[in-house]
Design a protein that fits this description.
207 residues; five-stranded antiparallel sheet; 37% helix
């Protein structure tokens, strides 16, 4: 699939994650933490909603994320659209009435990347609980002032990528990004390769 399709789909999924899942969850349950879910991602508290591939799932509802808006999706599942307020300054930048149009194949690829990231992070630190953050649409953990995770993509890298982000800059060939180190999931491969990459980052960060 072409990168434009991946970016369009990632932006659609980010908008839904932030304004249909995380915002309503924060207003109902006081947390913005989302989680990886088989085939996609989901809330971690009420209201219980999932995005599976290119569809929003709720009790009695299965809604395609194509030719719609976050406002329409939210109305269909009975929540008030909008991001969490007062917690961060960045985010998807999407308004509830902006178009949402996710390509199903690209949505499945992004879900695969987030799921592989969740698996790798649990292997890296079995005692940690990976969180899918709605602000930057990445799944990650923090260990000893180093962030580890997988981003669905952003202005730095438009496609999904693994990252290691020390709070204090490191030097050396591994550290190839302004925030630390990053390589695309497509380049690395699946959960096993992500585990090795993040493990190498941890070894070097702690050296």
């Amino acid at each position: 699939m072409d990168i434009d399709t991946v970016v369009r789909t990632r932006r659609a999924l980010h908008a839904v994650a932030e304004t249909v899942l995380a915002g309503p969850q924060y207003r109902a349950s006081g947390t913005i933490r989302l989680r990886a879910y088989p085939g996609g991602f989901a809330t971690s508290a009420e209201p219980f909603l999932q995005v599976i591939g290119g569809e929003l799932m709720a009790p009695g509802h299965r809604l395609a994320l194509q030719r719609t808006t976050c406002a329409a999706l939210a109305a269909a599942v009975g929540v008030e659209p909008g991001p969490p307020e007062g917690l961060y300054r960045d985010g998807s930048g999407a308004a509830p009435d902006d178009p949402v149009d996710a390509d199903p194949q690209a949505a499945q690829w992004i879900a695969h990347c987030l799921g592989a990231g969740d698996t790798a992070l649990r292997r890296l630190a079995p005692g940690a609980e990976p969180v899918l953050w709605p602000e930057h649409f990445d799944i990650g953990i923090t260990l000893d002032e180093v962030n580890y995770g997988v981003s669905a993509g952003d202005d730095y890298q438009p496609e999904p990528y693994a990252y290691v982000g020390p709070h204090t800059p490191r030097s050396g060939p591994f550290w190839n990004a302004p925030f630390g180190a990053a390589r695309t999931v497509r380049e690395l491969g699946g959960a096993d390769a992500l585990t090795r990459y993040l493990g190498e980052g941890r070894r070097l960060a702690e050296a």
